[in-house]
Amino acid sequence: MNPVKDHLDFGLHIVFIGFNPSLRSAEVGHHYANPRNNFWRILHRSGLTPRLYDASEDGELLKLGYGFTNIVARPTRGAEDITREEYREGRDLLRAKLAKYRPHIACFVGKGVYTEFSRRTKAGWGFQEELEPVVDGVREFVAPSSSGLVRMPMEEIIGIYRRLNEAARTDLE
């Protein structure tokens, strides 16, 4: 399977960072393409997007100031299939991408994504302001995974993403 292309550019407000692409995302070449993944619904319901986008439109979100990447590029059935070596390489590559593009906010879609990247053992939801960011000048936001397997109530997940939306809008003002 092919990796899913990053959507990155300079001057982005938010870069969404996942574990790695699903097999479905690799098949179609777009981020968060598994129909059981709630990512696109969460973005819309939280106010981050003005309408409900489809995974096939992921590149269009660059116009809204949003980018996409993953800590590991290799598609797998699940995050449990990612190797320690892939995480080690992925951390270095992700750090370099964030240092190069300097988004205002790096949104880690899942606590596990953030803890793998930062090598910190714990993280709360929202901004990680009590610690120095891994990449200087890039604010770190931890959001729940959008996987359909997540047991957290959808309204609670959307509420956390609304906080991200409010912060992004404040940054623009």
Automatic annotation (TrEMBL):
UniProt cross-references to CDD domains, sorted A to Z: UDG-F2_TDG_MUG (cd10028)
The Uracil-DNA glycosylase-like domain, residue ranges: 10-154
Gene3D superfamilies the UniProt entry points to: Uracil-DNA glycosylase-like domain
Pfam family, one: UDG
GO molecular function term, any single one: pyrimidine-specific mismatch base pair DNA N-glycosylase activity
InterPro entries per the UniProt record, alphabetical: MUG/TDG (IPR015637), Uracil-DNA_glycosylase-like (IPR005122), Uracil-DNA_glycosylase-like_sf (IPR036895)
GO biological process, one term: base-excision repair, AP site formation
UniProt entry keywords in alphabetical sequence: DNA damage, DNA repair, Hydrolase
The keyword 4Fe-4S belongs to this UniProt entry's keyword annotation: no
SUPFAM superfamilies reported in the protein's UniProt record: Uracil-DNA glycosylase-like
PANTHER family with a match to the protein in the record: G/T AND G/U MISMATCH-SPECIFIC DNA GLYCOSYLASE, G_T MISMATCH-SPECIFIC THYMINE DNA GLYCOSYLASE
Name listed for the protein in its UniProt record: DNA glycosylase
UniProt organism field: Paenibacillus durus (Paenibacillus azotofixans)
Lineage start: Bacteria, Bacillati, Bacillota, Bacilli, Bacillales
